[in-house]
Amino acid sequence: MKKIGQGRTAEIFQWDENRILKLFNHGTKMDDVKREFEINRDLAKQKMPVPDVFDLIEYNNRLGIIYEQINGQTLTKLISSKPWKILNEARRFAKIHRKFQSKISFEIPRFKVKLMRNIKTSNILDINLKNSLFKYIETLPDDEILCHCDFHPDNIMISDGKMLVIDWMTGAKGHPISDVARTSVILKFAVIHEEKSYIEKKIINLLRNKFYLEYIKHYMKLSNIKIQDIEQWELPIAAARLSEDISNLEKDILLDYVERRVENIS
Question: What sequence ranges are listed for the domain Aminoglycoside phosphotransferase (predicted)?
Fold first, then answer.
C-alpha cells in the first residue's frame, strides 16, 4: 500500500481507489480505536458531515479503520493559503461545532471523568493543586452532549467547499461549553513549531488569534452564552492538557496559567 499521510496517532494509506486505511501506531488501545469507529459510524448514519466509515480491522499487528477518501485539505491549510477567508471560515467553524452538539444515546466516557484522570496522571501538578481542581470540576455543569474533545482546524477537512469533522478518538459526553473551552485552550496556548522563523511565528499568531476571536464571538451568538461560561472551563482543561504529548514550552505556559487561575478558586 502507498502511504499518503502521517498524523500523531496513525499513518494513512491508500486502501483502494476510493478508500483509505487509517493505521494506528503500535500500542494504541482497542477501546480508543473502537470509540472512534463507533462514533464516526453513528454520525454517518445520521447524515452528519463526517467521512463514511467501512470497517475496523487488524493489519500487520496494528489496528486500523477503513474510511471514505476525502479529496480536499484541512481548514488549517485553507486559511494559511487564503487568509482573507479567515473570518468567514471561523464563523463556519463555530457553526459546525454547534451542529454536532446534540444528545447521544450510545455509551462513551464522560468529559469530566477524562479531565480528572488526566489531571491525576500529570507529574507536573502537586497533590494540593490537583485536589483543588477536582473539587472545582465537581461544581461545573454536566450534560449528555457529544463532545469532540479535540476540535481544531487540523481536524476539519474541506472538500467541495463543505466542512467534514474527522478524528473522533477523543470523543466524550458532557457539557457543550466544555468542548468549546477545550478548543479555546488549544487555539490560545498552542506553541508554534521551532523551525518557523520569527516573522512566520508572528504572522501565524496574528491569524490564529483573529480566527479564535471570531470563532468564539460567533459561537456565543449562536448559543446565547457569555465568555465567562467558556472561561470557567478553561482552568481544568488547561491543567488536564499538561498530561498530553505537547512541548515543554507549552507546558510551562499552561502551568503558569493554571497556577495563577487556581488561586482564585482556593
Answer: 138-183
